[in-house]
């Protein structure tokens, strides 16, 4: 009986911590509304967009970047290789929107094993303005994109960023990716911010260029394999904070497969493990699998029926997640709970894989992630 009490208590604690993280995230998040431009003179902004390859929503994300409601901004597109098919689309977009200052820079500065950072170097150094946004090419920028980033800047801020919110999924596995991005990863990131543990996400990052240049510039982000991890540590060393936008930006997903989700999420798991191992270690407890197993063991030890216990634990986990998505206007479908269950079944294997080294593909760049950060190195891609 004592064993059943201990396991039941542990399960309850995990269920309550899950609910607490949702409440904390909800306290930081707002449903998307339009932010008007600030009165008076607005600072000029440079938006650096590293690009590679053509994706289903590339045309739309390009057009959104040229349609921002900000009086003074420039777009700097960075592509590593001139034969990349996205070059043609970028040049066509620049031609269609002649009133928006925009440039395409081609070349690769090998300062790190991070191909995205290498691609951004030339854009950062070419930026004309003191405020610079590093924005992934698959971010669906709203018209008030810059306003949301600027609104999150405070006097003690060193960096403002936004986690991606998955939208427009096609098929079940894209729903699973929404479950990863939205009510799991975004939720825990905003819960961390509520606890004073804000950390960067590389999808959209607003920097004060003079501040970063005074502390090593963009090349300082090569200190870690992931530029957002290096950014978090740099900002923390300066005694400043990483702030998140109140309403994060969309990333349209389209169709996904189990293989693409596993590859991407396993890569991110290994990157988190080598950059923040103490935070990665308890990730095994964030899904429903561990508390469910503990609850079932406790129920079996105490002689209770197992199905009602399983239903109660799953309801306690997933109904608050659904409520969070609904309250913030994120994607929510009848398959959401099934997608969350599939996600949580993947988490233990993904967590275990995170502790192992091996090759990963990073948008066509093959990389070796070892068991320690010092063992990371880039290798020629076979993609």
TrEMBL record:
According to its UniProt entry, this protein's organism is Mesorhizobium huakuii
Name this protein carries in UniProt: Ceramide glucosyltransferase
TM stretches of this protein? 292-319
What Pfam family does this protein match (any one)?
Answer: Glyco_transf_21
Q: In which pathway does it act?
A: Sphingolipid metabolism; Lipid metabolism; sphingolipid metabolism
Cellular compartment(s): Membrane
Report the principal subcellular site. Answer: membrane
**This protein's UniProt keywords:** Glycosyltransferase, Membrane, Signal, Transferase, Transmembrane, Transmembrane helix
Topological relation to the membrane, as annotated: Multi-pass membrane protein
InterPro entries for the chain: Ceramide_glucosylTrfase, Nucleotide-diphossugar_trans
Q: Where is the signal peptide?
A: 1-25
């Amino acid at each position: 009986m004592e064993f059943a009490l201990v396991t039941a208590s542990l399960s309850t604690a995990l269920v309550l911590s899950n609910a607490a993280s949702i409440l904390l995230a909800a306290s930081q998040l707002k449903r998307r509304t339009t932010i008007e431009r600030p009165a008076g003179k607005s600072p000029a902004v440079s938006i650096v967009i590293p690009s590679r390859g053509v994706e289903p929503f590339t045309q739309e994300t390009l057009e959104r970047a040229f349609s921002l409601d900000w009086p003074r901004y420039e777009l700097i597109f960075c592509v590593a290789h001139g034969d990349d098919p996205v070059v043609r689309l970028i040049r066509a977009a620049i031609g269609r929107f002649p009133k928006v200052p925009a440039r395409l820079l081609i070349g690769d500065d090998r300062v790190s094993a991070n191909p995205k950072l290498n691609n951004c170097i030339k854009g950062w150094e070419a930026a004309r303005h003191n405020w610079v946004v590093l924005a992934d090419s698959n971010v669906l920028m709203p018209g008030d994109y810059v306003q949301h980033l600027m609104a999150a800047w405070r006097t003690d801020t060193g960096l403002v960023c936004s986690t991606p919110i998955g939208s427009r999924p096609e098929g079940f596995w894209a729903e699973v990716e929404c479950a990863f991005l939205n009510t799991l990863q975004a939720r825990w990131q905003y819960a961390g911010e509520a606890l004073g543990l804000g950390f960067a996400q590389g999808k959209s990052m607003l920097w004060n260029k003079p501040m970063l240049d005074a502390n090593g510039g963009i090349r300082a982000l090569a200190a870690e394999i992931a530029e957002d991890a290096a950014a978090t540590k740099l900002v923390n060393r300066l005694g400043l904070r990483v702030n998140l936008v109140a309403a994060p930006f969309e990333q349209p997903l389209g169709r996904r497969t189990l293989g693409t989700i596993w590859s991407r999420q396993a890569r991110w798991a290994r990157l988190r493990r080598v950059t923040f191992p103490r935070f990665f270690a308890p990730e095994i407890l964030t899904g429903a699998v561990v508390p469910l197993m503990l609850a079932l063991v406790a129920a079996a030890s105490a002689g209770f029926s197992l199905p009602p216990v399983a239903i109660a634990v799953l309801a306690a986990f997933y109904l608050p997640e659904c409520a969070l998505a609904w309250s913030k206007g994120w994607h929510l479908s009848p398959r959401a709970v099934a997608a969350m269950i599939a996600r949580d079944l993947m988490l233990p294997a993904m967590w275990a894989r995170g502790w192992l080294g091996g090759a990963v593909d990073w948008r066509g760049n093959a990389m070796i992630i070892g068991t320690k950060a010092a063992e990371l190195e880039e290798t020629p891609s076979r993609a």
